[in-house]
Amino acid sequence: MSDSGNLRGRIDAIVVGASAGGIEALMTLLPPLPATFGVPIFVVVHLPRGRPSLLTDIFVGRCSLLVCEAQDKEPVRPGTVYFAPPDYHLLIDEGPQLALSTDDPVHHSRPSIDVLFESAAGIYGSRLLGIILSGANEDGAAGLAAVAAAGGVTMVQRPDSAPVKQMVVAALNLSPASHVLELNAMSSLLLTLNQGATL
User: Which one from 114, 134, 139, 161 is the annotated catalytic residue?
Assistant: First the structure.
């Protein structure tokens, strides 16, 4: 995509999906964000079922933003990173507020990136930024397409910079107009988003 899209005051929420290699990618994206970053970030990382997630523990001491595991019916707060808990789908409902679901896995995954992205697109529409990072299956491709269809901004980690390319390639196949960026460029863009800069 060309750099013609203007994000000034346009993004109200960010959704991020990742699988294999994704935690390392998130380590590049999340810690640099300042405490003044006023946009909520919802994250699905594919995790083994039946084990507690360590994602909050990993990131809480490294991020200036509030970091927490999503809770059912919790109101969305600005400047907060919400991680989907293991074995629950994370959705965004009217309010906006969080919702957790034990519906069937999607692409063998619960939480599913598609479920988060599609629900968030329904709430935030054109004011949503969707990001797909490294991963090993096609979860997230349909969700990113839903973000694009709602008029939101879509972004994908550059395939040759992803440790596992399948997820980003699948996302680009369905959303070829997405911004394709290395992680450092993606991180810089998120920082300028906080300043109301353009993409």
Answer: 139
Active-site pick, 19, 109, 112, 161: 19
Task: Specify burial of residue 58 (Cβ count, 10 A radius: 0-12, 13-18, 19+).
Answer: middle
Model-wide pTM > 0.85: yes
The angle at the Cα of 78, spanning 76 to 79, to the nearest 5 degrees, equals 125
Over the stretch 135-185, which tens digit does the pLDDT of each residue have?
Answer: 999 999 999 999 999 999 999 999 999 999 999 999 999 999 999 999 999
Q: What SS3 class is residue 22?
A: helix
89 part of the active site: no
Rounded distance between C-alpha atoms, residue 61 and residue 56, angstroms:
9
Nearest to 135, CA basis, from 106, 105, 170: 170
The answer to whether 3 is a known catalytic residue is no
Q: Which of 12, 46, 114, 178 is catalytic?
A: 46
Which option is the CATH number for 13-193: 3.40.190.10, 3.10.450.50, 3.30.200.20, 3.40.50.180? Answer: 3.40.50.180
Both structure tokens of 122: 């329904």
Whole-angstrom Cα Rg for the chain: 15
| 161: annotated active-site residue | no
